[in-house]
Automatic annotation (TrEMBL):
Superkingdom per UniProt: Bacteria
Source organism of the structure: Streptomyces ramulosus
Transmembrane segments: none
UniProt protein name: Phosphoribosyltransferase domain-containing protein
Protein's UniProt keywords contain Transferase: yes
InterPro entries for the chain: PRTase-like, PRTase_dom, Pur/Pyrimidine_PRTase
Organismal lineage: Bacteria, Bacillati, Actinomycetota, Actinomycetes, Kitasatosporales
Alphabetical keyword list: Purine salvage, Transferase
SUPFAM superfamilies, sorted: PRTase-like
Amino acid sequence: MGFIVVRKAAGMFPGKKLGRETEPDHRRIRHSLRIRRASLGPADRVLFVDDWIETGNQALAVRDLVSAAGAELAGCAVVVDQMQSNSKETLGRFHALVTSEELPDA
């Protein structure tokens, strides 16, 4: 069991990297995501964990990074689920603590 970091392009990150660009998010911004190449291998299974998922585009880019490293995406866990797309089906197991509709109005 271990922990790997997915970083956006601006962050410092030593070593060889794998990178993917996301589809545009809800603000129409594309993000460049990276992982250290040595972090994953064929025997690894990955659970992607995030605080909030809206479009699923970052999770899908992480899925592609994990696959490019030869590992397997086992699923996705988030605190808040706001996805309206069918991306959940391609992320494997999916679990959220709450949906955005369950949150109180600000």
